[in-house]
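Lab channel / #folding
Pinned by the channel admin:
"Please post every new chain as: sequence first, then the structure tokens as a reply. Keep commentary short and put observations after the output so the thread stays searchable."

First post following the new format, from NK:
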Amino acid sequence: MPKVICVGGPNSPPDRSSLPEALLQGDSSAEGTQSPDIEWVFCESIVDAFPLLEEEDVAGIWMSRTSLPQTSEIRGMMQSGLMLRDMPEGVALLDADLRVIWANHRLLHWAGRPSGTPLGMTFYELLHNPEIMGPDFCPFHTALATGDESSSTLHSMDNQYFQVHAAPVRSAESPRNLIVTVGEITDEILQQQKLAAIHQAGRELADLRPNEIFMMEVDDRIDLLKDNIQHYLSDLLNFEVIEIRVLEQTTGDLIPLLSVGIDEEASDRRLSAHPRENGITGYVAASGVSYVCHDVQNDPLFIPGVADARSSLTVPLVLHDQVLGTINVESPDVAAFSDSDLQFLEIFARDIAFALNTLELLVAQKANTAQQSCDAIHSAVALPVDAILNDAVHVMEGYIGHSPEVMDRLRRILQNSRDIKRTIQQIGQKMTPLEAVPADEKLDQNAILRGRRILVVDHDEQVREDAHQLLERYGCVVETAHEGDEAVLMVRRSAGDDSYDAIISDIKLPDYSGYQLMLRLEKVMAHVPMILMTGFGYDPGHSIVKAKQNGLHPKAVLFKPFRLDQLIDVLKTVIEANPNVQNPPGSSPDDTPPSDEDPDAARTASGGTKNSIC
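Reply from TO:
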């Protein structure tokens, strides 16, 4: 039996003359307004009639004139229906039980139900019961209960994400219905998750516990960092061909740190931070700007890292506006890298730069601690060893020509005492790796001081101690004496490799003046590399004038208090003027000098006294 939906309620049944002829065929009723062969279904409003239209046995719909909308309203409803049906966002009308009254094509497509809205199905059932991720875990009930709009995020079983917005229908005819709009935000959510994973990976790059830092050597920490970088770039960002180079600040060379999938010839290629003839890597290191090469065959800057590379992405490693290096990835596909890839790699590159800087700080801190330990040990034994040397040369003077065996033993005492200080220095150098020395201290400007033997003569113990502390940082071998006669014996018993390259003496010694020491040393040395120290205006007997007249270098005078750089300059001047100067044993151009700017070592003119070397 066909059904006719009657909009307007049972109190306004249709007149028989208003019914279509098709519905009256077979009607045996002679009178009355309703045919016994038609089932009438009454609805208060057209909104209530919508769900019934889905039934197959509905033959028609009748509306009373009072329920009939205006023509313009009908036209608007038709146009709105077409727009809602085909709009790119999902739209649905729900009843108070969250059952779907109507859904547009887009929502049915996302739900995998292109044939139409299944009757009686709730909204959650339509989307296969997705997970509610919040922030409102009951958005529909919130909208119904409060009359306000509410939103939430849904995660479907097939890993799709939807943003759902529910709003109550503001109509007296259907106050318990909801209008729901649905947006597909899978790409946005996945990008957010990827960004979060990248930030987490960046935090874990060089994340070491204190016990791990204590146990691991520099090379072990570098290997750990390289393994973490490779893991995250491959598994998280899906990059298979990777090259990371670190910029050497003094030379501008880009030193390979990590190469994965790169041809050996390309990995060994020498590159510099220069925009010409150094490929895209050199250009990025020089400019500090990322570079996307969509097609290597049409890019004049590109130098292949692998034979089948067709596109590349290169990003600088930047920290505090300073380029530390570059990271380059390549692909066998043309235009393989998107804006998202660029964004992700730039974010991760900042984490890599931070990890590299942290690693350098850890290395420097460990090296500084090791150096301080060696300095403390050396400071504790330096003056006692000097006392042994002083006593040994005194005893040797008394045994000359008497006991060859005793002389041999005394010579061994001298040698062993000097070896003690050399050993401490060598241990300190081994415990302070080259990587820990800042780039601006790797200059070779003070290389001439390394390995030079310096004798400091002063009655003040603080002066002798400062001489060890300051000059040995530059690789000098320092020995001290209390007075002039002791200094003469030290020089007399130092020959060959143990001869002194410079002698620094106070102008007033306990036994005689620095000038008189210079005269006595001329009897045992072919050339006396003398430097005299004195306080301002303190020069009894015009010793400095007489010394200069007797061959003292014009610049070989230090007026207390003086700065460290003044001491170094005078010392270098005297050594360079020494005709017997040769490269000291064990020195090489690759040795690293200490800094001229050590704040603990430098003394200012206002802070020194006559009893201080600086």
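NK: The chain has four domains: 3-26+35-68, 74-184, 193-365, 440-577.
TO: also worth noting, The longest helix spans residues 339-399.
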